[in-house]
Fold this sequence. Notes:
This protein is of the alpha/beta class and 227 residues long. It has a single domain, classed as TIM Barrel, CATH 3.20.20. Helix content is 54%, strand content 16%. The chain contains twelve helices and eight strands. An eight-stranded parallel beta barrel has the order 1-2-3-4-5-6-7-8, surrounded by seven helices. It is globular, with a radius of gyration of 20 Å. The two termini are 40 Å apart. The mean pLDDT is 96.
Amino acid sequence: xxxxxxxxxxxxxxxxxxxxxxxxxxxxxxxxxxxxxxxxxxxxxxxxxxxxxxxxxxxxxxxxxxxxxxxxxxxxxxxxxxxxxxxxxxxxxxxxxxxxxxxxxxxxxxxxxxxxxxxxxxxxxxxxxxxxxxxxxxxxxxxxxxxxxxxxxxxxxxxxxxxxxxxxxxxxxxxxxxxxxxxxxxxxxxxxxxxxxxxxxxxxxxxxxxxxxxxxxxxxxxxxxxx
Length: 227
């Protein structure tokens, strides 16, 4: 399963890349606005987006703003100018699917976002989506089982050998990542806070501390490896 970070913060991206390695990034206007406004020095948005796109070799999803297909297509053409690894995010709406079909003809890859049902995911795939993004956390928020929806989407895609990748979005905790991997989702896009949680376990910390304490009993070992 590929690991993306759901962030537009260059510091977060760098930390995740150094820690686990990243297969890609997902962004949205909210994340970009937060990251740009947090900069100590003024930076042009275009320059900042370019830095985000250049920060990884894998796919970087950048989102359109229009509600109509014509606008999404126009914006998609503009967004891919940032790099060959850009994937255009469009909403799973009637106009969004029209845009996916149009962009597909121009070999522009689309991440169809805000997916909440298997039927929506099937329609997105048939329209030519490169990625579909079910939002598991938001489904859990309204007492639906987000991961069950992902499982059904993965099964449907396998039934018909559909190549559209399933990206688990709105990840809230490590259990979502664990379940996504068991189900066989292609990608999980994860906030940095959850990435850090994936690494943590009290027994790991306890074991490391014990090793360090025991090492003090053989000081020649420390001298040997640190010389």
